[in-house]
Amino acid sequence: MTTQEYPPLLTRGQAAEITGMNKRYLDKLRKAGTLRVYKMLGGNEHRFYRDDLLKHFGLGENKNGQ
């Protein structure tokens, strides 16, 4: 699955899958404020912004096709 096939807001599992990082590490970055997240109604769940994750980890697809 290419990165653009993922939805714009990712669950913790999807974020771990797309980045190859551990879920706990992503939570650590979220709690430290390093990664911007969307808080779901009720405040107990979070969604990671796909584009922010790709930019942070340098995983964005190259625009010129290389």
In total, how many beta strands? 3
Q: What's the overall geometry?
A: globular
- Binned strand content: 5-15%
DSSP helical segment count: 3
Uncertain residue ranges = none
CATH class: Mainly Alpha
Share in helix: 25-40%
Q: Give the averaged pLDDT, no decimals.
A: 89
Elements, N to C (H/E): EHHEEH
Strand order of the largest sheet: 1-3-2
* Main sheet summary: 3 strands, antiparallel
CATH architecture: Orthogonal Bundle
User: How many domains make up the coordinates?
Assistant: 1
Task: Describe this entry's structure for a reader.
This protein is 39% helix and 14% strand. The chain has helices spanning 12-19, 23-32, 50-57, and strands spanning 9-10, 37-39, 46-49. A hairpin with a 6-residue loop joins β2 and β3 (46-49). The longest helix has 10 residues, at 23-32. The radius of gyration is 12 Å and the shape is globular.
Describe the structure concisely.
The chain is an alpha+beta fold. It contains three helices and three strands. A three-stranded antiparallel β-sheet has the order 1-3-2.
Describe the secondary-structure layout.
Layout: E1 9-10, H1 12-19, H2 23-32, E2 37-39, E3 46-49, H3 50-57
Antiparallel strand pairs: 1-3, 2-3
